[in-house]
Amino acid sequence: MSSIISIKDLHFSYGGEGEEVLKGIDMEIEKGSIVAVLGHNGSGKSTLAKHINAILLPTSGKVFVDGIDTCDEERLFELRQKAGMVFQNPDNQIVSSIVEEDVAFGLENTGVPYEEMRQRVDEALRAVGMYDHRLHSPSQLSGGQKQRVAIAGIIAMRPECIILDEPTAMLDPQGRREVMATIKDMNSRYGITILLITHYMDEAAQCGRVAVMDGGRIVLDDVPEKVFSQVETLKKIGLDVPQVTELAYELRKAGVGIRQDILTEEQCAEALSELLASGKR
Amino acid sequence: MAILKTEQLTYTYSPGSPFEKTAVDHVDIEINKGEMIGVMGHTGSGKSTLIQHFNGLLRPTSGKVFLDGEDIWADKKKIRDVRFRVGLVFQYPEYQIFEETVFKDIAFGPKNMGLDEADIKKRVTETAYDIGLTEEMLSRSPFGLSGGQKRRVAIAGVMAMQPEVLILDEPAAGLDPAGRDAILSYIRKYHEKTGNTTLIVSHSMEDIASFADRILVMNSGKIFCFDETKKVFARSEEISQIGLDVPQITKVFDILKRKGIDLGREVYTVGYARDLILDVLKSKGGIG
Amino acid sequence: MLRDITLGQYFPGKSIIHKLDPRTKIILTILLIVMLFTGDKLICLGIGAAYTLMAVLLSRIPVKMFVKSVKPILPFLIITAAFNIFIIDKGDVLFHWKAIKITTGGINVSVFMIIRIVLLVAGSSLLTYTASPITITDAIEKLLSPLKKLHFPVHELAMMMSIALRFIPTLIEETDKIISAQKARGASIDSGTLRERAGNLISVIVPLFVSSFRRADELATAMECRCYNGGEGRTRLRQLRTSACDYIAAAVTVMFLAAVIAADKML
Q1: Cβ–Cβ of A111/C162 closer than 8 Å?
Q2: C38: domain range?
Q3: Structural domain boundaries of chain B?
Q4: CA-CA distance, B98 to C200, in Å (whole number)?
């Protein structure tokens, strides 16, 4: 178990004064894992994300990505190549008016020779399923497709990890499904570490680990089954829990013996059918 | 009495060009005074085009729109009055904010209606209160507010015109759960207080399930179904096939039905599911 | 009205003209201008016209589109031509009534001017019709690259142009949306008195500015995150390559230009 991202006692406040947005974060993110940071607006989750590829620098504490200190200016480009970032608004991160050129943007910046660039761009476009759209203009694409292009632009850089800052907040359900499928695929097929910042609990439930942030601190950090079973804590800080988890919680409160670690519809249907069957006796 | 009614409403984008696309296709709808309607459909289903006909922002390629029994296009000069009577809040409405203070921005619509100062002031203060903005905020610049607050300012800007019909396109898009619940509950309270007709467009059945009287589902420019909420949920599997999100809890009961356990009801809220299960268990003597 | 301006529109195609390197096309367009303004004999203009016509036909773009490109400047052409006819006093007098005097010289100048401008517009339209804005930007960057030595920000200029091109459709869509939203609040933008409209324009311009600044800010961050660091050491995915066609086209153009110069000097 080696960690790719290592955050040590991170504190941050804008301008180094005033109220701290991050109040001491300690977190190790394992190589190849897929981790969600769940929190409401203003919980500090986006601020945390911006520290990982040095858009923001710690007021105190340290952040390391694959051993590189984010404060090390000499290695800034190396850091940003290793930790790619996808933002919320799909329109405001696409630079070029042709899809494939946008995917190439990072490679062009780092001076990758033409032949290799061509190959890596095509590979990345195929990986996210946008190869057929390579000559289109971004304005012809849906929101979900634009986000996949943005992901391809990061994949082409052959990163160690991708940080996605609320990548689905502006998408419709179809786009959200597309993006989630792509993210999970990047993780399972290429072993890229994923850090997904989100306020959608259904997305967090699909990850291997969920860290819940509130008021600049991490308040829960565990596998999704354990995190979402804390129904009351989550509701108190203004977050949703999956409806099935909530149902199990409500039933337990009413004295029904049902598992508390239910996350999916299938698990819930199974538990309920057992319950109803046993009720017949 | 139908407040809004369409007759064979059809709208075609760029007719005669290679990009020609019929976004709304011979749609007949009747919406009654005081109803709370949920409008669903995936991107490109024609729902956004449809709602822009209700306040005359788009003119039908063919067919008619009636407001309170009158054809809104009977006199082209009066179309602006229709916009005051049918308020439309666009998606991400905070992007339309432009005035230097919250008060002035909310007052923009009422001012365009030609109301006098005193009336404008009354409406702005009242609406701000109804949507949970404090009086102190009214004198502040809207650009310094949080995302959720800006959204409320924008919605208030339309509510202050006191339209008979209020249409909101994805009012909760992009907000976090707390922000979403707050906006939806303010809209609901406003509807209860004024008794106006409200249409909420949403991708999420979950958001509108608990309070819509009827749900309109659009698909490929046509009405997929338009019925009472529970009847629409009875067709949840078809609805999920046309690319819409069905609440997780409804899916659970669909699975149970397939397994041969039919509880005979459409379930779309957690509270209802809990009561239903508890009832069944009680009748079977399973508890205690 | 904006819809009538065809300059800047691109029609994808596979003709010889489309295949030419955009750099070649820019240079040839400049040569065409030289050709059209060299010499004041009818034969010179005739050669220029023949050259333009040949290029237009080779591009396989409907002639209709070129007529359309000339249309918006027609009123301007007619007014200047009229001025020339009445003001220039040269050659034989054809018509004289009180202060109005029309001479052969005046008519000559007017006709020449009209033909020149029409050919000029047709020729430059050909450039934008057959090369996408982004390739033209690339070509300009390449052609101007010697200026880098003089510390002229060639790369930055080209990057700004290409980002502008990228965001034009986005901003048009956004403007439409804001206009609709303000119309829904009763703003008179396409109707009402001029004063009302001017006042209401602010309700469109302010949100558009606010959102553009936000976009610019976010885009800058996104570019930095993708290791953007100016033009130094950058490679490009889009390669501009000259082929035999480019040399042939250049040779043909030079021949035409030589013919114009020869005709002007010798005939």
Answers
A1: no
A2: 2-131+242-266
A3: 2-242, 247-288
A4: 11
Indicate the CATH number for domain B2-242: 3.40.50.300
Q: What is the pLDDT of residues B48-62, one digit of tens each?
A: 999 999 999 999 999
Task: Kindly state whether residues C210 and C246 are assigned to the same domain.
Answer: no
Residue linked to tokens 């570019």: C223
Report which of residues C165 and C20 the model is more confident about.
C20
CB contact, 8 Å: C75 with chain A?
no
For residue C150 the two structure tokens come to: 């003089």
CA angle C30, C32, C38 (to 5 degrees): 105
Classify residue C148: in a domain, yes or no: no
Output the pLDDT for position A168. Answer: 94
Residue B288 has a pLDDT of: 43
Domains of chain A: residue spans and CATH: 3-241 (3.40.50.300), 242-281 (no CATH)
pLDDT of residue C2: 41
What tens digit of pLDDT does each residue of C102-125 get?
A: 888 888 888 888 999 999 999 999
pTM, entire model: 0.88
Mean pLDDT of A252-273: 90
List all residues of chain C from 60 to 89 with a beta carbon under 8 Å from chain B. Answer: none
Q: ipTM, 2 decimals?
A: 0.91
Residue C178, token pair as written in the block:
């804001």
* The pLDDT of residue A192 is above 50: yes
Least confident of A206-215, C102-111, C212-221: C102-111
Q: In this structure, what token pair is assigned to residue B240? A: 């999920």
Contact C181 B98 (CB under 8 A): no
Q: What is the pLDDT of residue C106?
A: 85
User: CA B218 to CA B226: how far, in whole Å?
Assistant: 9
Domain check: are C107 and C42 in the same one? yes
pLDDT at B222 over 70: yes
With beta carbons less than 8 A apart as the criterion, state whether A198 and A86 touch.
no
- Closest approach of chain B CAs to the CA of A256, in angstroms? 7
Q: Are residues C27 and C70 in the same domain?
A: yes
- pLDDT score of C8: 58
pLDDT band at A52 (very low <50, low <70, confident <90, very high): very high
CA atoms within 13 A on the CB side of C24: 22
Contact A92 C236 (CB under 8 A): no
Please tell me the distance from the alpha carbon of residue C145 to that of residue A69, in angstroms, as a whole number. 37
C89 in a structural domain:
yes
- Among A81, A92, A138, the residue with its CB nearest the CB of C222 is A92
Instruction: Find which of A38, A41, A177 to mutate to test the B interface (most B CBs within 10 Å of its CB).
Output: A41
**Partner B contacted by C101 (CB < 8 A):** no
| Strand order across the beta sheet in which B21-32 lies | B21-32, B2-13, B62-67, B70-71
Q: How big is chain A, counted in residues? A: 281
How does strand B62-67 pair with strand B165-169? unpaired
Say which residues have a Cβ less than 8 Å from residue C108's Cβ, sequence separation at least 6. C90, C91
The length of chain C, given as a count of residues: 267
Rounded mean pLDDT of chain B?
91
